[in-house]
């Protein structure tokens, strides 16, 4: 019974003490308005005097006093004793609360609108405040992270000095690169450590600053060398590591040094030895300006020469057996070669004896490179044609001949009035001088121009291209002639019933690539690549198909000999429609005025290539003069190709051909091109009724009704063709169509 009474008394005492404290606070709270009126503030004063009170009750008391929210960790346990006979302010009461927590191994960590009460060991990993020196008042005793900047001493040295003075729950980090110390601890401990740091972080009396002028060496290079030397040296045991700063001042070519007196003298002596005029040996650095070779390509050759790592080389003994002998290096690793692209020069560094070896190699490689003038003839021959080719190397004297212009679908690629020597050349590529003979069947032609001239009017032979090009020895030369044909890739219709089409353009062309390589015996090695792409079906313009023939080969010929490549057989499909304008478009009855044709022909592709070696610029000038003289002779002729084509005296067949091409353009609605062809056809033959009628149709579509009416009347006024005067009195269908068109225009009808 007595034991139970003592336990009850022991539990009641703390409660009575807490009630007594609350009774003390209430009068003070009631007196606070008076204090506020007297002092003009809202500050309250309390008396805190606890004896062996549970710490959680003390936390609740501070929470009610300061109106702050606390979250208490489960590890927070213990008894609190505070002896404070005098009254203190509410702010000082909270500081006392922080000190009580520190004494018992706890800390208050703010976290938003609440404060966490946790063990001090956990506090350093919580969201504690980070401050710099001077940002906290002296009375605060909460856990913070303090950042301290050092001015003179090393951060690692300060860390080693303070570590024994810190508690187990504290954290200290030294950042030597930036000279910072980072401390996490109660502010009371941090304040004590700050006093120690201030006493240590003072300038040394032995440090000084000096300026060292340089006469020969570069301030930047000397600064890097000396700085690396002193930065790499470790501090002696028991001594402070010295901070040496060296700043290059390029304007005066000087060094600004900040170091101790001993180190400054060492730096001065070292710089004096480095700042000397170094005599440059003649073989150390050389510059060679190249006259013919390319500097960048020559560097690759020189740096890939065999060295002493190439093993052994095989040599022939007197008995014919191979023996191994060490391979001497051509150029050692001490030699460096750099190319300067702007001046096409080589910069070489290395010993003099090595330089002489390199210079000898460069002189043998830096020689004028020969050029090769290439002439080619690409032609198609129908398989049914009796066309056998044999090459005979005769001493025939030929000259500039032949050429081509335009492409396979253009009327300007015709060869007209080509004489044997010299030939009449159209605009475009031309052939060069040939001095060999070519035998086809039993006939020997003096040059390629004679071949072209012999077969220019032969429908079984089609000259595709006669290109010429000048290139350097062992450099690829290429030429490509053709047109860009549109291919439909997709057709679609939108929800609004609008059609749209996507096109892709592809090349339909003749391509020729040749890489010549000339040896000292004037024998030319030719790497030849030929590709001929032709349209198989020109009628289906939306989806054209092509036929490709390619050839790749390597041949060896002498200078000015002709190479012949043949045997590439292909098949051409031709489809066409011929009809009387307007009448041929009448449904059903229109078949009486039109016809269609389809034909297939197999063709054999032949390629003639003749190389001409050009040794020096004088030969280039001579070749240029010959070409220029030939072209001037062509242009001085009264009827060159262009003039004969556009202003001929009389050629009805040519007029019909132009009219047919114009009609094809008219069907494709290419009005400008169609007008051009019809106009040229009328210049050739003014009585071409089809050209007059179709040109009138073009005028109607362009809205030029007066011009169309005039052209229709010219059709009606045309004389009948020869041999038809005595025929029946039946009206000419073309004139009947012209009358119908005139009536439509006169009655105010719309154009076609």
From TrEMBL:
Residues 454-615 form the Type II/III secretion system secretin-like domain. Residues 306-328 are annotated as: Disordered. Keywords: Cell outer membrane, Membrane, Protein transport, Signal, TPR repeat, Transmembrane, Transmembrane beta strand, Transport. Gene3D superfamilies: 3.30.1370.120, Tetratricopeptide repeat domain. GO terms for cellular component: cell outer membrane; type II protein secretion system complex. SMART domains: TPR. The keyword Cytoplasm does not apply. The keyword Transmembrane applies. TPR repeats lie at residues 655-688. Residues 48-117 form the GspD-like N0 domain. It is found in: Cell outer membrane. Residues 145-205, 211-278, 286-370 form the NolW-like domain. One of its GO terms (biological process) is protein secretion by the type II secretion system. Pfam families: Secretin, Secretin_N, TPR_16, type_II_gspD_N0. Belongs to the bacterial secretin family. GSP D subfamily. This is General secretion pathway protein D.
């Amino acid at each position: 019974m007595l034991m139970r009474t003592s336990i009850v008394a022991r539990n009641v005492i703390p409660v009575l003490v807490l009630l007594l404290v609350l009774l003390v606070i209430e009068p003070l709270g009631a007196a606070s308005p008076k204090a506020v009126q007297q002092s003009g503030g809202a500050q309250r004063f309390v008396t805190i005097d606890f004896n062996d009170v549970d710490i959680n009750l003390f936390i609740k008391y501070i929470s009610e006093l300061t109106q702050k929210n606390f979250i208490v960790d489960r590890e927070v346990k213990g008894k609190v004793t505070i002896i404070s006979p005098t009254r203190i302010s509410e702010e000082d009461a909270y500081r006392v609360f922080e000190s009580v927590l520190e004494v018992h191994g706890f800390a208050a960590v703010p976290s938003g609108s609440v404060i966490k009460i946790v063990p001090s060991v956990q506090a350093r990993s919580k969201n504690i405040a980070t401050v710099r020196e001077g940002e906290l008042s002296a009375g605060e005793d909460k856990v913070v992270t303090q950042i301290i900047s050092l001015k003179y001493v090393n951060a690692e040295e300060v860390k080693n000095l303070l570590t024994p003075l810190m508690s187990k729950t504290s954290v200290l980090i030294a950042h030597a690169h930036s000279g910072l110390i980072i401390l996490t601890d109660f502010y009371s401990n941090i304040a004590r450590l700050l006093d120690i740091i201030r006493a240590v972080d003072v300038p040394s009396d032995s440090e000084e600053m000096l300026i060292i002028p340089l006469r020969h060496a570069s301030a930047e290079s000397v600064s890097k060398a000396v700085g690396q030397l002193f930065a790499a040296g470790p501090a002696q045991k028991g001594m402070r590591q010295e901070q040496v700063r060296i700043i290059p001042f390029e304007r005066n070519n000087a060094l600004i040094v900040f170091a101790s007196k001993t180190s400054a003298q060492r730096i001065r002596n070292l710089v004096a030895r480095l700042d000397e005029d170094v005599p440059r040996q003649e073989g150390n650095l050389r510059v060679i300006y190249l006259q013919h070779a390319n500097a960048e390509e020559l560097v690759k050759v020189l740096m890939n020469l065999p060295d002493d790592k190439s093993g052994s080389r095989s040599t022939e003994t007197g008995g014919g057996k191979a023996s191994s002998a060490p391979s001497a290096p051509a150029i050692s690793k001490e030699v460096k070669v750099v190319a300067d692209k702007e001046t096409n020069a080589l910069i070489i560094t290395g010993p003099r004896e090595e330089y002489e070896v390199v210079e000898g190699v460069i002189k043998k490689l830096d020689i004028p490179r020969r050029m090769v003038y290439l002439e080619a003839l690409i032609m198609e021959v129908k398989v049914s044609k009796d066309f056998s080719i044999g090459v005979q190397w005769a001493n025939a004297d030929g000259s500039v001949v032949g050429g081509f212009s335009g492409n396979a679908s253009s009327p300007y690629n015709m060869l007209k009035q080509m004489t044997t020597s010299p030939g009449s050349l159209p605009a475009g590529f031309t052939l060069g001088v040939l001095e060999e003979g070519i035998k086809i069947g039993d006939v020997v032609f003096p040059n390629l121009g004679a071949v072209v001239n012999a077969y220019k009017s032969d429908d079984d032979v089609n000259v595709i291209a006669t290109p010429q090009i000048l290139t350097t020895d062992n450099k690829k030369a290429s030429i490509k002639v053709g047109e860009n044909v549109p291919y439909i890739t997709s057709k679609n219709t939108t929800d609004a019933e609008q059609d749209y089409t996507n096109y892709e353009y592809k090349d339909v062309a003749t391509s020729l690539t040749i890489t010549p390589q000339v040896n000292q015996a004037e024998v030319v090695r030719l790497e030849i690549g030929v590709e001929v792409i032709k349209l198989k079906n020109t009628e289906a313009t939306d989806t054209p198909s092509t036929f490709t023939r390619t050839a790749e080969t390597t041949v060896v010929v002498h200078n000015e000999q002709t190479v012949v490549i043949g045997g590439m057989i292909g098949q051409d499909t031709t489809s066409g429609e011929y009809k009387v304008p307007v009448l041929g478009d009448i449904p059903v009855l229109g078949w009486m005025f039109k016809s269609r044709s389809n034909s297939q022909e197999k063709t054999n592709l032949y390629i003639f290539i003749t190389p001409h070696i050009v040794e020096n610029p004088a030969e280039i000038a001579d070749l240029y003069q010959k070409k220029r003289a030939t072209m001037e002779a062509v242009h001085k002729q009264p009827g060159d190709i262009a003039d004969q084509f556009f202003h001929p005296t009389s050629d009805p067949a040519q007029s019909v051909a132009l009219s047919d091409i114009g009609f094809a353009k008219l069907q494709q609605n290419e009005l400008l091109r169609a007008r051009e062809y019809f106009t040229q056809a009328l210049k050739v033959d003014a009585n071409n009724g089809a050209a007059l009628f179709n040109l009138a149709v073009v005028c109607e579509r362009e809205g030029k009704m007066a011009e169309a009416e005039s052209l229709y009347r010219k059709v009606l006024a045309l004389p009948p063709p020869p041999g038809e005067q005595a025929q029946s009195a039946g009206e000419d269908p073309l004139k009947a169509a012209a009358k119908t068109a005139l009536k439509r225009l006169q009655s105010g009808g719309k154009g076609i």
